[in-house]
Amino acid sequence: MVEPANPDLSIGKQCELLSISRSSFYYQPKGETALNLMLMRKIDEQFLETPFFGVREMT
Q1: Count of domains observed in the chain
Q2: Is 39 part of a structural domain of the chain?
Q3: pLDDT recorded at residue 2
Q4: 31 to each of 21, 28, 34, 53, how far by Cα in Å?
Q5: Coil, strand or helix at 2
Q6: What distance in Å separates the CA atoms of residue 42 and residue 1, rounded to the nearest whole number?
Q7: Which domain holds residue 23?
Q8: Tens-of-pLDDT digits for all 59 residues of the chain?
Q9: What pLDDT is recorded for position 5?
Q10: Under 8 Å between Cβ of 22 and 12
Q11: Can you give the pLDDT at residue 59?
Q12: In this structure, is residue 21 part of a structural domain?
């Protein structure tokens, strides 16, 4: 999509032509933390045991 080495079009112009913000081009997503993955796994396990629980019971 965006070619940083293109001498004819700047990155800003390429992003403008693609209708994306320049900051989204530079964005590097961070992975999930080990703690967050553990918590999501616990929530999934609880949901599989009791799918009828609502928000109040899950908290």
Answers
A1: 1
A2: yes
A3: 87
A4: 22, 10, 9, 29
A5: coil
A6: 39
A7: 11-58
A8: 888 888 899 999 999 999 999 999 999 999 999 999 999 999 999 999 999 998 888 88
A9: 87
A10: yes
A11: 81
A12: yes
SS (H, E, C) 15-53: HHHHCCCHHHHHCCCCCCCHHHHHHHHHHHHHHHHCCCC
Query: How many residues can be counted in the chain?
Result: 59
Q: What confidence score (pLDDT) does residue 33 get?
A: 96
Residue 11: per-residue pLDDT: 92
Alpha-carbon span 42 to 35, nearest angstrom? 11
Q: Is residue 50 part of a domain?
A: yes
45 in a domain, yes or no? yes
- Output the pLDDT for position 35: 97
DSSP one-letter code for 13: H
Alpha carbon distances (Å) from 50 to 10, 19, 39, 46, 59: 54, 44, 16, 6, 13
What are the residues whose beta carbons fall under 8 Å from the beta carbon of 27, sequence distance 6 or more?
none
